[in-house]
Specification:
- With about 450 residues, the chain is mainly alpha-helical.
- The protein has a domain of about 90 residues: Herpes Virus-1, CATH 3.30.40.
- It has 8 helices and 16 strands.
- It starts with about 25 loop residues before the first strand and ends with a helix.
Length: about 450
């Protein structure tokens, strides 16, 4: 390793729990490595929680992961020790001087090195060189090391100059052991470590609950996006299909218009042809009568008696005129009844279309993704006292809040509203308001009238 020109740092092979070189290294699922005994002892403290946390990245594991020795890392650590790079890197790290934002070692003289640990008992911070006695000497065995901190005095009781090792739940503050016999006597107190463990358990439960809520919300968000996508695709398909249906209806109406126009022309042609044939027949009859009349007038002026008598034998009686069919002699003869039938058809078609449009509007309005949070459904009635009579609009259900009046989003669609106000009555093309029940009765009356 040294011959290859690779510079290794001692911290790369240190266990973050014991801060020493890895011994029998194992790698947990998140990728961090620890000494076998260190990680087992660390997890044994949280065994009753059934949730095991990585000391570095704080990732949780359930159930407890099975530990297996990292053979490759163990070989690298052994080679690291054999080549003596540990001492080399130690001497290099001794020269890691403290920068502006670093914690300085309290033991170094002259230019101070960067502190890596602080002792809560000594109330001092140490670099890698000066912290070694805390690991090697039995006198420092009970000292507690933490990461280097600037605020060491915050861990000392300002009154008794003792370490704050007790937590008072009554006053919600950290105190020392001497405070227990003074102003905090009789209070609910526990060791600070016990309180920290309890708070960590609470935070772990809160984190799990928060993760479950996040997963639930993410699932709902995904379902909502899927619903929006599906509705958009369905709306596009419905619009295209409705365009095709209405285009076919328009073609059908155009065809009926052409058929009515051709029917009127054919009727006109047939009626005129019959009238012209009758006119030609009458004309021939008049010509024949005039011819006989001329012969009779000629004989009536003849002076030769013999010739008169002979000519009388050749004169026949005038032909009898045949009975003529009934002829309409009204000079203002028009297709008025036809136009009335067309107008009636127009009114019937408009009513049928209006009923169909109302049904379409109601179905369109019912297609929603997010419904009202607290809908109040009530019966909407309208009363009129102009002639002392009351008329009730039947079958009309509205959803509205008291005192709220809303206008439709589109003037072409009076059934789509921005809020919960959704009236179901429609307006006919002539401006008269029709409810579903009254429109149905009008259609039934019109149907009875046509059957008569």
């Amino acid at each position: 390793m040294a011959q290859a020109g690779v510079v290794l740092d001692k911290d790369q092979f240190n266990c973050s729990i014991c801060l020493d070189v890895l011994k029998d290294p194992v790698t947990i699922p998140c990728g961090h490595s620890y000494c076998t005994d260190c990680i087992q002892n660390y997890w044994d403290q949280d065994d009753y929680l059934a949730v095991f946390v990585c000391p570095q990245c704080r990732q949780t594991f359930t159930p407890r992961p099975v530990l297996a020795r990292n053979t490759m890392l163990a070989d690298v650590v052994e080679k690291f020790k054999e080549t003596g790079l540990q001492e080399v890197t130690t001497s290099q790290t001794n020269q890691s001087f403290a920068e502006a934002n670093d914690v300085e070692c309290d033991v170094c003289t002259g230019r101070k090195n960067k502190a890596v640990n602080s002792c809560l008992v000594c109330l001092a911070s140490y670099c890698e060189v000066h912290v070694q006695p805390h690991y090697e000497s039995a006198a420092f065995k009970k000292h507690k090391l933490v990461l280097a901190s600037r605020n060491m005095q915050d861990n000392i009781c300002p009154r008794h100059d003792r370490l704050l090792e007790v937590y008072c739940r009554t006053d919600k503050m950290c105190i020392c052991y001497l405070c227990l016999a003074d102003e905090h006597k009789g209070h609910d107190t526990v060791l600070a470590e016990a309180e920290i463990q309890q708070r960590q358990r609470q935070f772990s439960e809160m984190k799990q609950s928060s993760n479950l809520r996040i997963q639930q919300r993410e699932k709902e968000m995904q379902e909502l996006r899927q619903a929006i996508f599906s509705l958009t695709r369905s709306a596009r398909a419905a619009a295209e299909e409705s365009d095709a249906v209405f285009t076919e209806l328009i073609r059908s109406i155009e065809l009926k218009r052409f058929e009515v126009r051709e029917l009127i022309k054919a009727q006109e042609k047939m009626a005129i042809s019959q009238a012209e044939q009758l006119l030609d027949k009458i004309q021939k009859e008049i010509t024949e009568l005039k011819k006989n009349e001329a012969e009779l007038d000629k004989l009536s002026h003849a002076e030769d008696q013999v010739h008169f008598l002979k000519s009388c034998q050749s004169i026949h009686a005038p032909p009898t005129t045949s009975a003529l069919p009934s002829v309409t002699t009204d000079p203002n003869l028009t297709f008025g009844p036809v136009m009335k039938a067309v107008s009636d058809f127009k009114g019937l078609l408009q009513e049928v279309c209006q009923g169909g449009f109302v049904s379409i509007y109601e179905r369109v309005r019912d297609v929603v993704i997010v419904g009202p949070s607290n809908p109040a459904v009530q019966l909407d009635t309208a009363e009129s006292g102009d002639a002392g009579a009351a008329a009730q609009i039947e079958g009309t259900l509205v959803m509205q809040r008291p005192g709220l009046v809303q206008s439709p989003l589109s003037p072409l669609n009076p059934y789509l509203y921005s809020g919960p106000v959704m009236p179901k009555f429609g307006f006919s093309p002539f401006g008269s308001k029709l409810s579903s029940g009254s429109r149905q009765r009008q259609l039934q009356r019109r149907a009875h009238h046509r059957r008569k």
